[in-house]
């Protein structure tokens, strides 16, 4: 085999691409990963944003990394310390009360009780039920979605579907009915059904809309909430964590796992196009003109980039191309990174994650701006303080804030990108100053990344969180398109292994692991056929 021939090429060294590469290499497949950027990680990276100050540049909270991926790839043996620093959530209402939600049930109830005794009683009960329902759905995160077409599923998929149906039934009649009732409704209705305080309702509104181009009164938002909560049961880490060293530490462990298994990783190696011969994918051509060949090409770049830009024109069915072109990819979250001389009092006493979403109407109005192509006048914010758990991310005595600003739409109607960036910074800081007075005077440096910046700097098309929104019409057997949910694309030899495939985004490794399993199944079937 020549140096430029491999068994498999993985496009993109985001965390999912690395997961796929590690599983393939462990199975003895000679695997090459080619990454456009000059470092691996995609949207899961730690980088310096001001001299001496580092933070997770895009994804900042670890909660969804699947325990089976950690185990299978021995990530702890490769240095991953995912669950050392669990964070609690503080909901701040500017000029109003605060609520601290921690791992301590009594303290949490006491904190909510100061705002609403009824919510203090309801919160643990309602959240436990939502986590139970989301866990039942979450059992499908690490499985390949079945085809809705009769006769199209193999025995294993049918068995998985049967087990899934059984688990749903085991929820019991009441929970089953509740799941059917809430799955397609909006989170504003759900929150109003169970809670009375703006602090809790606003918090739920943000949890349910973060990363999707929906407001709390949009249908489907409870589904997004359940998707997020699915990592709070056995299909994730069970809570929010700040990994030591930032999100880049997850990727460091994945790089070690993949290379220890024999994979080769090349950074600064953007793929220009796929090599397609006799309608079969046979490798890639890099921007440099270098050709690399392999019978398996798995792309962790998003579906639009992979299928509309890397696949040369004329190789895909028109209907399929149209479906991919119409995937909703409108990113709506910007990031602000602040280098601080210290922490204001309101943040010092927080649980490490702070949410400023003072009510459903606040979040809905923030979305109204985005609907008409404007940066929210008053955003909803999710703030984490990575230096609380890892002081080495800043010089001694200094602090870092990593802030998600919802909503800053990718598709702006009249605002030039530079103005949008300035608006995100000013409006974000204004709201933060109201919620945590004294923040502004502590800022010594800052970085603001709009969805446009996330696209150009991290290769996220549309700056979208999930490589394509996770809504009921774009999940499960419809992800990325009907009949192509099995990671296998219409061109033989081409597979999808990033968040654009089932089950979607978050730093979970699920799409990468599922794709590797399907590829290995195919390799085995070919070998069996060849031997027969
Ligand atoms: C603002 C924001 C905040 C988020 N916060 C969180 C969070 O707190 N927690 C969480 O769990 N998730 C979060 N997410 C979601 C999470 O970051 C992503 O869903 C996840 O990182 C996607 O991983 P991936 O490996 O599938 O894709 P990516 O990380 O996008 O990796 C794809 C890789 O492919 C490379 N690539 C693309 N084209 C080419 C090419 N032509 N040649 C070679 N390489 C190429 C890219 O450079 C990239 O490295 C957030 C997302 C956003 C946008």
TrEMBL record:
The UniProt entry, under SUPFAM superfamilies, shows:
FAD/NAD(P)-binding domain (SSF51905)
Q: How does it assemble?
A: Interacts with COX5B; this interaction may contribute to localize PYROXD2 to the inner face of the inner mitochondrial membrane.
Residues in Amine oxidase domain copies: 17-520
Name any one Pfam family assigned in the record: Amino_oxidase
Q: What is this protein called?
A: Pyridine nucleotide-disulfide oxidoreductase domain-containing protein 2
Q: What does this protein do?
A: Probable oxidoreductase that may play a role as regulator of mitochondrial function.
Molecular function GO terms recorded: oxidoreductase activity
Q: Which domain of life is it from?
A: Bacteria
Please report the organism this UniProt entry assigns to the protein: Hypericibacter terrae
